[in-house]
Amino acid sequence: MSRPMAKRPASIGGLQLKNTNLGVVAGVLIGQKAIADGAATALFDVACPVGGSCGGVLHAVVQAADGADLQAMAVIVTYAAVNKAGTLTLTITDLATVDAKAVSAGTLTLAWSLVTGAGKCTVKVTPTGSLTETLFTVTFVAMPVVGLVTLL
Asked: What is the pLDDT of residue 26?
């Protein structure tokens, strides 16, 4: 008597998996990094080989505090790149119309950049805050649609 084949799981650790013609897609990576006021911090690399492309979405929350005041900003960022004969063309966009910012005092702004590498691009964030931060972090969820992501 033969045994029936096991079904592929519908989720792993709460992450829904989807069968597509591209295979099983999971693709969500979560990271957290300390950041510094006015300094670009690399969050992750995205593979973009010659003749290929990449793109995805990033959800992030930046938190800042100085012991008295608090700041938080939630953002959605999209990125895409193409690699024509070893030359990368890159774009990254913060969907500012959906950003949410709460500050008990002062100001907090974020600048996003996508930087060229060899067969890859790197997503970076540069925060600018008005506090003398004792806590400054970015917590993010990277959701690549095309291109392998490596957290840094």
From this structure: 52
Residue 56 CA to residue 101 CA, distance in Å, equals 23
Distance CA 56, CA 6 (A): 32
10 Å CB burial of residue 14 (0-12, 13-18, 19+) is exposed
| Cβ atoms of residues 106 and 69 within 8 Å | yes
The pair of three-digit structure tokens given for residue 72, joined into one six-digit string: 């938080």
Q: Can you read off the two tokens belonging to residue 8?
A: 């592929």
For residues 150 and 31, is the Cβ–Cβ distance under 8 A?
no
Asked if the model's pLDDT at residue 148 lies above 80, the reply is yes
| pTM for the full predicted model | 0.81
Quick check: 64 and 129 in contact, CB under 8 A? yes
**Local confidence band at 55 (pLDDT 50, 70, 90 cut-offs):** very high
Pairing of strands 70-84, 87-94: antiparallel
Specify whether the backbone of 27 is left (phi greater than 0), alpha (psi in -120 to 50) or beta. Answer: left
* All domains of the chain in start order, with CATH: 28-151 (2.60.40)
